[in-house]
Design a protein that fits this description.
The chain has helices at 10-28, 46-55, 86-96, 137-193, 199-202, 205-222; strands at residues 4-7, 33-34, 59-64, 100-106, 130-132, 236-238, 244-248, 253-265, 270-281, 287-290, 294-298, 301-303, 310-313, 317-328, 333-340, 343-350. It has 353 residues and is an alpha/beta fold. It has two domains: 4-155, 3-Layer(aba) Sandwich (Rossmann fold), CATH 3.40.50; 236-350, Immunoglobulin-like.
Length: 353
């Protein structure tokens, strides 16, 4: 790993960021981790210096805590909407330079939607987030380390491929020249060895019969059936249903139940998990029943639903809805998270292969 830039707000996630940085330094070395810009020379353009620092990194981790979008300046204006805000400049610079940006959610934070972000951060909402939960901190951090290690290896492979590209091109050119000589030699041998034929020999019954036989053989070969790869046969697997979860605090009392669960093949590498869920709202007021309530953890990495669930459930009533997730075919176990604010319930699913 060459360089990792950690972007965060001190008022929002300083504690979590410090713990994460300590672990990353153990894995990749202190010289590879950038957290705070403390070495900018006096009189230098801070914004430009910051962009250059971000541009020298390979990965930017955008640590997002519960107050990431709401931290304000002295005038009460959200810092996120200030064009000179350090955090905004860091992430926007990385997106502009096509540097990989990984949102890292801490403290129970959820991924902000594009409508709450300034225009130059729209791309952040399209990035797959990685959650670091307090209950599973060590496991979640190690999963992030694996992702960063894979990124490092991918860059090394690309670099080696680029270095070997000229020699490979030369080899292909030499092979092409040799092939031309071989084809020319074969053609010359064929011309010299072919017997001279006269018109009456070509029209003789023997020649005609031979030609007809050859044509018949060619026709037969042309019509032989070819073996083609068959498309994957769609299948649906019914999973164990009936799991339930309850989120109850001083302000909410909600009960979620999985009525049915199916795993349907989507293509050769991906399946879709279909979950029919009933939400019983025991509160006096209406509550949202939408995609943002649910996350699917695949080896600790959260996935957002691909469904379009957007409902509201009135107080003291219930409603059913469909939640869908795309999952790789190789995944064997996932964890469904039901979230309301900082309250989270988890339901495991075993996916048969």
């Amino acid at each position: 790993m060459r360089r990792i830039f950690i972007s965060y707000r001190r008022e929002d996630s300083a504690g979590w960021t410090g713990r994460l940085a300590d672990r990353l330094k153990e894995c990749f070395g202190s010289e590879s981790i950038f957290i705070d810009i403390d070495t900018i020379e006096p009189g230098a353009d801070f914004t430009e210096a910051l962009r250059k620092a971000v541009g020298s990194c390979d990965v930017l981790l955008a640590v997002i805590g519960p107050r990431w979008t709401t931290v304000t300046d002295k005038t009460g204006k959200p810092r996120l909407h200030d064009p000179s805000d350090w955090t905004r400049v860091e992430i926007a610079s990385a997106l502009t330079r096509k540097i990989r940006v990984i949102p890292v959610l801490v403290g129970g934070a959820t991924m902000p939607s594009a409508e709450f972000l300034p225009d130059d951060l729209d791309g952040l909402a399209q990035r797959q987030a990685h959650e670091l939960s307090d209950k599973r901190w060590t496991y979640d951090v190690e999963r992030l380390v694996q992702v960063l290690s894979l990124e490092s290896q991918t860059r090394i492979d690309r670099s080696e491929a680029t270095q070997h590209a000229p020699s490979a091109s030369i080899s292909r050119s030499v092979a092409f020249v040799i092939l031309l000589f071989v084809i020319g030699g074969i053609a010359a041998i064929g011309l010299n060895s072919s017997p001279s034929s006269t018109p009456h020999q070509e029209n003789s019954p023997e020649a005609s019969g031979s030609r007809s036989s050859t044509q018949q053989e060619n026709t037969t070969e042309t019509h032989e059936p070819k073996l083609l790869s068959q498309p994957k046969t769609p299948k649906t697997l019914h999973l164990h249903a009936g799991q339930d979860a309850r989120l109850k605090t001083a302000s909410i009392d909600q009960y979620y139940q999985i009525l049915s669960a199916e795993l349907r093949s989507r293509n050769h590498s991906e399946n879709v998990l279909h979950l029919q869920i009933r939400l019983t709202n025991n509160d006096a007021y209406a509550t949202n029943f939408w995609n943002r309530t649910f996350r699917l953890l695949e080896d600790g990495v959260p996935r957002s639903p691909i469904s379009d669930l957007s409902e509201s459930v009135e107080g003291h009533s219930a409603k059913e809805g469909l939640v869908e997730f795309a999952v790789p075919e190789s995944v064997q176990q996932v964890l469904l998270q039901v979230r309301q604010g900082n309250d989270v319930a988890e339901l495991p699913f075993i996916l048969p292969q």
